[in-house]
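Exercise: predict the structure of this protein bound to TYF.
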Amino acid sequence: LFAAVEMAPRDPILGLNEQFNADTNPAKVNLGVGVYYDENGKLPLLACVKAAETQLVEAARARGYVPIDGIAAYDKAVQNLVFGEGSEVLTAGRVATVQALGGTGGLKVGADFLKKLNPTAKVLVSNPSWENHRALFINAGFEVDSYPYYDAAKKGVDFDGMLACLNAAPAGTVVVLHACCHNPTGYDISPAQWEQVIAAVKARNLVAFLDMAYQGFGDGIAEDGAVVGQFVKAGLSFFVATSFSKSFSLYGERVGALNVVCDTKDETAKVLSQLKIVIRTNYSNPPTHGAQVVATVLSTPALRAQWEEELAGMRNRIKAMRAKLVERLQAQGVKGDLSFITTQRGMFSYSGLSKPQMERLRSEFGVYGVDSGRICVAALNDKNLDYVASSIAKVM
Ligand code: PLP
Ligand code: TYF
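Solution:
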């Protein structure tokens, strides 16, 4: 039965973890996978999460099935966070929200629904993008192409190229857009540029699919989510996949959502019914724990305030690491303008290092980044910073 099965390539990023774990170099540093580590190099358990979990354990509830579209209080909390409490689309009942297995699950439920809605549509992802975007939409049955995004020479976004591509896309094309903290480059577009993207989406009848996996890691919860409000204001129907993996440090709990903004309340009910079919035929209904934790934190004022503080702590520590990385690289004699490192937003820095340089960083120094030159700034700390900076300086 399986004689013809070929070995599939491993995930280029998650595969690095295996290589890292097997490395015996005592100085090794993992800057590969996009995970936030604290100043001691540890994956944090947020205090707000611990407090919510204590409450939940004390309430000790039986574990029945959750509704197909998720825990109602969780979906509501997601909506308020993503669209803003009292937002016109919420009061009008124009958002279909379902709990999902992380941001990835939200993307997949949306992709499966879109495939039924418009089977011949093409999908465009940024060049480059999170590798799973392409794979996920291909596996949902779509042809996937890319729109220009990163401009290596400029160390920024090729916005003219991006816009020209969107303006040439056929009606119905699904455009996957990083709402904030672009993975892998760290370069985001400005609110004014978003307006131009929105105008193109509107004029060409494209389908915008926002992926917001890093809300709060750029400039703040409201600041990073502002693009969603811009799409709402434009009167568009669109998709937003969201994730709490990073912002709550709940990676393994798989807590995310898919939000679909519709034209009318009636349309929303129909869309929700279709999303529920996608879910039912894949995994029936979502898990309980992570969503309960998030819903508890977001709806309890004291815990919510604590979360915002902890999230700001993560965001500010990453920013401090960016500034220190620039400083240490300069101290190691690296010349040229390094301000791109502090311009970039979110967990990653597209360093501009080549594949051979990234390979040398791994083999000679045990410093693990992605072959594309992406390094996870959120894994830097005061203890590994000098070593990382001197290793980078040596391969440059
Ligand atoms: N989208 C982007 C751009 C990401 O970087 C990630 C990271 O993991 C995800 C989606 C998926 O997040 P999750 O782990 O919640 O599925
Ligand atoms: O880009 C990253 O590192 C994160 C984590 O298949 C990740 O988004 C990487 C690969 C993958 C799933 C998650």
